[in-house]
Design a protein that fits this description.
25% of the residues lie in helices and 37% in strands. With 59 residues, it is of the alpha+beta class. Strands 2-1-4-3 form a 4-stranded mixed β-sheet, covered by helices on one side. The longest helix has 15 residues, at 27-41.
Length: 59
């Protein structure tokens, strides 16, 4: 099972927890940040809904 290493959102009031949270001003920036983190961290970006991505460590 993978570990959540980051969260990217446009709605900071809807997230919390122990993983780093990255805020995006709009959905376009949300996708850009999520995909950059995916490449930089060698992880997988998963859309949970249109305003939230989780970044999961690959096994």
């Amino acid at each position: 099972m993978g570990k959540i290493v980051g969260i990217v959102t446009t709605k900071p009031e809807q997230v919390g927890g122990g993983a780093p949270i990255f805020y995006a001003k709009d959905r376009e920036a949300l996708q850009q940040v999520a995909h950059l983190l995916e490449k930089i961290l060698d992880c997988a970006a998963h859309t949970l809904h249109e305003d939230l991505f989780i970044i999961v460590e690959r096994e």
